[in-house]
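hey so i finally got around to running both of the ones u sent me last week. sorry it took forever, my laptop kept dying halfway thru and i had to restart like 3 times lol. anyway pasting them below in the order u listed, first the sequence line then the structure token line for each. didnt double check formatting much so if smth looks off just lmk and ill redo it

first one:
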Amino acid sequence: MELIRGIHNIRSKHQHGVLTIGNFDGVHLGHQTILSRVKSLAKQYQSPAGVMIFEPQPREFFAPESAPGRITRMRDKIELLQQQGIDYVLCLPFNNKLRNLDASEFCNLILKEGLHIRHLVVGDDFRFGCDRQGDFEYLSRFGELSEFDVESTSSVLSQNNERISSTLVRQQLESGRFDDALRSMGHSLVMSGRVIGGKQLGRTIGFPTANVHLKGCEPALRGVYAVSFFVDGRQYQGVANIGVRPTVDGKYPLLEVHVFDFDGDLYHKYVSVEFNCFIRPERKMSGLDELEKQIQCDKEEALRFFRNL
């Protein structure tokens, strides 16, 4: 799979294909239905299957303080899209220039002149263009004039008859319904990043942690989890906290992992953390003594989970 950053990097090999557009946060079962249709059509046309995403996501651009947390970070999302068998991902920078394009300009500049698409597949709630003025009906009319087909996909429902969406997955994560969230996604939840230096407070209470900086990304996932930890081609078990660390007056979200049976230097290593089981929400402790006792309880809970696999 190829990652294309910006329309100026579109080449002829990316054109005349089948495309879908969206945030694809979480690449959940609803997204996978769309991607499956895109791949099926691309095979039929013998043309490339593409996905267009935006960075930052539009709501993060318009209202960063109230934008929903991300289920998957950019790099992890790209990895999931690659696993779905997509040929290319076109990532457009969401900035003032893009936000000011009206529906007609967006369709002409990107879909018609940039990609020369043959077929567009979108979700049933897709909106686009300045002030979200474009919708499925607009795309259908534009497609007829520009000689490409447009189709929408119907919603995918969960076991509880809920429409599977990124919003639903966030709600499931926020309410501690972690297993339901995994079922809605249809895959494990993984976060990757580079280990950074910290205050080493965990080391002082007997629980050294690998700190993974989320680089300003507000995560949808919060709390304490039993996790699998991957580094240098090896897998370990551990317990992780993802949040703002209220006990030590944290200022920004951080992923901290206490890795079991590991003795080595993780600084600057690129690691992946797979969340296996929700243990508890994040909460403020009275001090380091209570924090130490709670981490010990969390570790024991995580170990019980792994023993019972």
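and the second one:
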Amino acid sequence: MSVAVVILNYNGRKFLANFLPIVLENTPDATIYVADNGSKDDSLHLLATSFPQVSVISWAENLGYAGGYNYALGQIKADYYVLMNSDIAPRKGWLAPLLAHFEANPLLGAAQPYLLDYQKSEYFEYAGAAGGYWDSYGYPFCRGRLFDTLEKSEGQYATATVNWATGACLMVRADVYQKVGGLDAYLFAHMEEIDLCWRMQRAGYTIAAVAESEVLHVGGGTLNKENPFKTYLNFRNNLILLYKNLEPSQRFFTIFFRMIFDGIAGIKFLTEGKFSSFTAILKAHYGFYVYLFSVKEKHNLPADLQKIWPQSYQGSILKAYFLQGKKKFNQLKF
């Protein structure tokens, strides 16, 4: 089985210099690609002079995470793709358990290794931890990470079927990726892997997080947590993926209440003096309406592939975390 590890790069020379040698050393059983997403720094010069063994695909403009990967993967032939951030340091032997899990599970569409914090490797990392879920209002969370509370990795979470796998290091079955339409380029960045995994499940495939595979992740390499554009994308895209993937009978009320919760979050930002974040939420809601009423051809699962409406956590993660004081995933009742 052929595996292509594809690192999407945007002005990430520093990360390529630091992490690409680790990827090459610890991934002898795959072909490594760097897909340059319109970088303006000297990333391409670095790749040509220091990493001639790495295959490079480049284009002139930043297409975002989703558009960039769709463009790059369309030019790569492999049985499996690994979509890997440039700030990932994979541990030795990380790929084999993922590949074995795919080979043992023919309906597995996507999977992730466990993400650990690069600075504090005994802890899970925010962007995916040990595999993700969403609650009844569409809020994403992970085993090992609820909101900003990160757990130590102490073997408490075994390999399991989950609802979404992190885009920071996402392995997908190539034919399934193409069958469900790939990533939604309209989303640009953030939440696009959740949308992809949701569509895969609607088509009858499963998603997994594999405990025997571990990578270290820096996080925030392109947009840091406080960046208003990141806030805008997260809030807008979460509403879009709910509209796209919820069972039609659940759409209106789920999105209605979710927008109320977004308003409460906006008020909290105001009280904290985070005016740019407050404005980002307003722009996100406007952006959702633009999508709803102006985007005629919405990127979604073809009707002939629709098989099931997947379920996740039926409670409210907001209530569990903030009102009931449940700070760890294993305190939740599914």
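quick thing i noticed on the 2nd:
The mean pLDDT is 96.
anyway thats it, ttyl
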